[in-house]
Design a protein that fits this description.
Blueprint (H helix, E strand, L loop, with lengths): L1 H24 L12 H12 L5 H10 L5 H20 L10 H24 L2 H13 L1 H5 L5
Helix pairs in contact: 2-4, 3-4, 3-6, 4-5, 5-6
């Protein structure tokens, strides 16, 4: 009787571990984010940086105004946070494998400048926001000017 109870308990424990291991595989764990592909990064980059209607152009336009609309700047900075997160989360397959470490450092610099811009917008500090925006624009060449050895 005692041996049967031990075998049954061990079987139940194995079943629980097995089912718990299947949960992420079967898609029940929705908290994991999808790693952005090169195409995803390119689309976010175009939305954030390209043209007169881009997020960066909108922020620059607001900061040139006599009294910037800080709510709009804050909303635009949120989309830059999305871009920064995509750059940091992009796996080595999104870049040339030799350039991966370099690109991750550049993505960190981009994220730091976005955070500085966010802090300046929350503080409604035009000078700090302009400086952070200039720093953010300076990070472009870290990736786009990098040549693969």
């Amino acid at each position: 009787m005692r041996r049967t109870t031990i075998v049954a308990a061990a079987g139940l424990a194995c079943a629980i571990v097995f089912v718990a291991g299947l949960a992420p595989v079967s898609g029940q764990d929705k908290s994991e984010k999808k790693v952005p592909t090169r195409k995803d990064v390119k689309e976010l980059m175009a939305k954030a940086h390209k043209g007169d209607n881009s997020t960066l152009a909108s922020i620059q336009k607001e900061l040139k105004a006599q009294s910037p609309d800080w709510a709009r700047v804050g909303a635009d900075v949120k989309s830059l946070h999305e871009m920064a997160e995509a750059l940091r989360a992009a796996g080595p397959y999104a870049y040339h494998y030799v350039a991966y470490e370099h690109m991750q450092r550049a993505a960190g610099a981009y994220a730091n400048n976005v955070n500085a811009l966010d802090r300046a917008a929350q503080a409604r500090d035009s000078k700090a926001a302009v400086a952070a925006l200039a720093g953010l624009r300076g990070t472009c060449s870290a990736c786009h000017g990098y040549t693969i050895p």
